[in-house]
Amino acid sequence: MRVDSIRSYRIVLLSVTIIDTLAVIFAATLAWNLPGTIPFFPPVPFIPSAVTIFVIAEYIVLLAVLKFVGGYDLRDIGAGSAEYRAIITAQALAFGGWGVIAYLWDIPLSRTYFLVLLVVQTIFLLLGRFIFRRILHHFRDEGHFMRRALIAGSPTRTRAIAEALAGRTWLGLLPVASFLSADHLPTTDNVSKDPVFQDLARAVKESDVEVLVIADGFLKDSAEFSSISWALESLHVSLIVMPALSNIAQDRIHSRPVAGLPFMWVEQPRSAKALSWVKRLFDLVGAGLGTLLISPFLLIVAFLIKVHDGGPVIFSQTRIGVDGEPFKLLKFRSMVENAEELRAELVAEHAGEGLFKMAKDPRVTPIGRFIRRHSIDELPQLFNVLRGEMSLVGPRPALPEEVDTYSEKAYLRLRVRPGMTGLWQVSGRSDLDWDETVRLDLYYVDNWSMLRDIMICLRTIGIVVGGRGAY
């Protein structure tokens, strides 16, 4: 393994450990001082020696449990939800164990301190990992803390995987080489007699990579996979297998070994669940509270738009909702009053399938440019959500003329209510091309979950404040 890679791994692990340590210290301090200021939570009895011993012991046990449940697994640090699940699991196991021990041995530990520490420490640990993830992603965007990868497969698949990894640097995989396969590889029980497998092992070694990515179609049976594993055993290279499955969320896939075969159970698409009462209740509560909290701000924006040119404050436009039903979408007016008349000319110059977007649209007013950059113009859509025409999270609401150009695949976006935000919003907004927008929307439709909606809403706040990808 490369010396710089070993150093990078150590830096990442040391940084995560320090962040977890700080989270425990801050949580322990806050849990000591917070009770007494919260109703129904009395102050913690002043027994500093007992609390100090407990915090030190709890910290050591927590680190051990985190290691056991994968909280320090380099494959999960910085990407995916497994890292956060490990934090929650470790907290539950550690505090559950301490609770049982305190009860059986009658340890004089303040219940108030114990409960507050559990909640506060979980929040601080998750927040610390989240902040570290943002920092790690920044460094990975600049080419640091990346794992060199070789991709084995057909020219089409290796190119597709390389492009996918290059556009998602937060995964920490840097494609540096490829190993192109023939239609089928020879099968043999003795790896030493198979030059193809030996060539692959030699390519891995000469490329000095840490990860081998095997694309679907590269192997024709499990015997070939075993042969490759044996050939790579001494090289200490991580192995990633890309199955012929795409755009399926991890929580829809369940693996279960049967007679040595890795059976993969894939749940049906969840578009029907995206219309459930749970999501509707989430929309009503979120839109209702949001409208109530920002109503003074809405009045200020409306006043500024009116003062600028004396035109109407609200712009309504026909959009296509769930199952192709049209509705009137509400927005703060950000363009000149005859914007729709000018649109036909601009569309003719920039014709194409799907959505129409211009980076420097001449119809946008000065104040409109600001409110569009920070998505303030879309806040009146909270009323569309309350009326049941839209959702807080969903595919981008489409114009009728855009729907007329839809392919059969793109039309599947209309299975759910359009949203004020969505995967398209947190993945690039107007910077995305049409194909990528459709792919993200269909991924959302097929893989809907309440947790994913909440995460998209949280990510939207940062995207909107920064004004990235909007015009």
Automatic annotation (TrEMBL):
- Which parts of the chain span the membrane according to its record? 12-34, 46-66, 86-105, 111-132, 281-305
Which compartment or compartments is the protein found in?
Answer: Membrane
NCBIfam families referenced in this protein's UniProt entry, alphabetically: EPS_sugtrans
Q: Principal localization?
A: membrane
Q: Which GO terms describe its cellular component?
A: membrane
Q: Which topology term describes how it sits in the membrane? A: Multi-pass membrane protein
Mind telling me what this protein is named? Undecaprenyl-phosphate galactose phosphotransferase, WbaP/exopolysaccharide biosynthesis polyprenyl glycosylphosphotransferase
| Keyword terms, alphabetized | Membrane, Transferase, Transmembrane, Transmembrane helix
Q: Which Gene Ontology MF annotations are present? A: phosphotransferase activity, for other substituted phosphate groups
The text of the family note is: Belongs to the bacterial sugar transferase family.
**UniProt xrefs under InterPro entries:** Bact_transf, EPS_sugar_tfrase
Domain Bacterial sugar transferase, which positions? 279-465
Q: Which organism is it from?
A: Bowdeniella nasicola
